[in-house]
Design brief:
The complex is a heterodimer. Chain A contains 11 helices and 6 strands. A 6-stranded parallel beta sheet of chain A has the order 3-2-1-4-5-6, sandwiched between helices. Chain B folds into 3 domains: about 55 residues, no CATH class; about 70 residues, no CATH class; about 70 residues, no CATH class. Classes of the chains: A alpha/beta, B mainly alpha. At the A-B interface, helix 3, helix 5, helix 6, strand 3 and helix 7 of A face helix 1, helix 2, helix 4 and helix 6 of B.
Chain lengths: ~270, ~210
């Protein structure tokens, strides 16, 4: 076995060396990557403090969203924020957390409106977090009285019951703008259709690819790919959001370079097929 | 007092998050603690679902008592909720496992499943209408590419008088599904993964506090 291993090592020296390093690092590789990301965020945060005015590429959905929030406040209509049906203890939890950040900014912006935003979710934990975030937001801006526990709701516990529950909010509660930020499946099409029928604008993003395809076709302002996670930076949630956005941009280019470089090396025969 | 509580919330949340994260990377050291904390989280999530259902009932009760728009549907929801609880209660009283009991399964098979299947059927129609509206909504090159791809993949997938198995269509479908779509999907998933990491790190750094801190 050892001799066989040795022979393999000689044939594909480079590949096995890399594999050996990966094997030694094992589970630690993920931790190293997370620490690398953390380091980059801290560096970008420090450099951002020296240069407070930072330019980021324009995402039309966020410009439109800010405009519509203003209009909703003026016209006495309501914002509906849909946090999807992702569970917090699973991979879609990231999208729900990004949605909660956007929700917090919405609640702040619409705090002077006669009708406070209504938030729907399809998971008990996310629903409690949305209520807690709304309560904390109103408390921080000195508007505790505006907090209504029924404005953060569990609309349904299964994907389609959640969709049915959220559709009734869109239809019945004088909603002018829908913000959908979280984990959805293809059934999000029913929500965007409900938005269209009630004449409200829909700004939507999801971590799921089928939902992104539906949102691209069904909404005026879709958030594609990582744009959902950039909401905090575009809605002024703080300097760390800018730092994390820059970290994402740099790493995306780095990963793209690694993928293209790997493909080229394989094409040239340096890496075995 | 409020500040102290909010700081304590943040400390507990960040410490729990870090311990669970370390449990994944260093399972020999933190694995046991991670499993224990995840078990607690499962119990809390079940309780949160119950709180959520009570909150939903409260919302609809308020709609009925204040005679808001759609109050009729709220009455239907409240009656259905009570009936479901009663039927599952009968199962439990009869010594059966609640969700797997006779009446629970009867409700699932005869009410929930047909309604959900009807919604899926409506969804299919909605998606077709949506695709047809796309060019009116966003008339640009990407919309045309999107629609052309949808048409090619659909025609290449359906057994329509052997139309879907004709050579040019299967080649085009294969190119779209196996090459172009896979490349695009990987790009999007990389972005989503990086976004998820960034969101998680912000929570661990205490910058995002979805727990009202």
């Amino acid at each position: 076995m050892l001799l066989r291993g040795r022979r393999l090592y000689t044939c594909y020296g480079r590949l096995l060396t890399l594999n050996l390093v990966l094997e030694i690092l094992g589970d630690l590789l993920g931790l190293i990557f997370a620490l690398f990301c953390l380091g980059m965020m801290i560096i970008f945060l420090a450099s951002g403090r020296k240069r407070p005015i930072q330019s980021i590429r324009e995402i039309p959905a966020f410009n439109r969203f800010r405009h519509e929030v203003g209009l909703a406040v003026e016209s006495g209509k309501r914002l509906h924020i849909s946090l999807g049906r992702g569970r917090l203890d699973d991979q879609p939890g990231g999208a729900a957390l990004a949605g909660i950040t956007m929700m917090e900014r919405c609640a702040r912006a619409a705090s002077i409106s006669d009708r406070p935003p209504v938030v729907s979710s399809g998971d008990g934990v996310v629903s409690i977090l949305s209520q807690d975030t709304l309560r904390a937001t109103y408390h921080n801006i000195g508007a505790d009285r505006r907090y209504d526990p029924t404005s953060g709701r569990l609309a349904g516990a299964t994907p389609l019951s959640y969709t049915a529950g959220a559709m009734s909010i869109i239809h019945d509660e004088a909603v002018s703008t829908n913000v959908m930020a979280g984990h959805f499946g293809g059934e999000v099409g029913l929500l965007t259709e409900a938005g269209d029928r009630s004449g409200s604008l829909t700004v939507a993003g999801s971590d799921s690819l089928p939902a992104q395809a539906v949102l691209y076709a069904g909404t005026e302002e879709p958030l594609i790919g990582e744009e959902l996670y950039a909401g905090g930076a575009y809605l002024g949630a703080g300097p760390l959001h800018f730092a994390s956005l820059r970290m994402q941009d740099v790493l995306r280019w780095l990963l793209a370079a690694v993928i293209v470089g790997g493909a080229l090396l394989r094409l040239l025969g340096v890496l075995p097929k | 007092m409020k500040t102290i509580l909010s700081a304590a919330n943040a400390v507990i949340a960040i410490a729990s998050g870090l311990l669970v994260l370390l449990g994944y990377f260093l399972p020999n050291i933190f694995g046991g603690l991670r499993d224990q904390m995840l078990l607690w989280a499962i119990f809390l999530a079940a309780f949160a679902l119950l709180v959520g259902v009570l909150n939903l009932a409260g919302t609809h009760l308020k709609k009925v008592t204040t005679r808001q728009r759609g109050a009729g549907y709220s009455i239907v929801l409240l009656i259905s909720m009570l009936l479901t609880l009663a039927l599952v209660g009968i199962d439990l009283a009869g010594g059966e496992n609640g969700p797997a009991g006779f009446w629970s399964l009867w409700l699932f098979k005869n009410i929930q499943m047909p309604i959900e299947i009807s919604l899926i059927a409506v969804l299919a129609i909605v998606l077709v209408i949506m695709a047809a509206r796309l060019l009116g909504r966003r008339p640009n090159t990407f919309s045309i590419i999107f629609l052309l791809t949808v048409v090619i993949v659909l025609l290449g997938s359906v057994p329509l008088y052997h139309f879907g198995s004709s050579a040019p269509l299967t080649t085009l479908r294969g190119l779209a599904v196996n090459l172009l779509a896979v490349g695009g999907m990987r790009g999007l998933l990389l972005g989503v993964a990086l976004g998820t990491i960034a969101t998680g790190l912000r929570v661990l750094m205490g910058a995002d506090r979805p727990y009202g801190g």
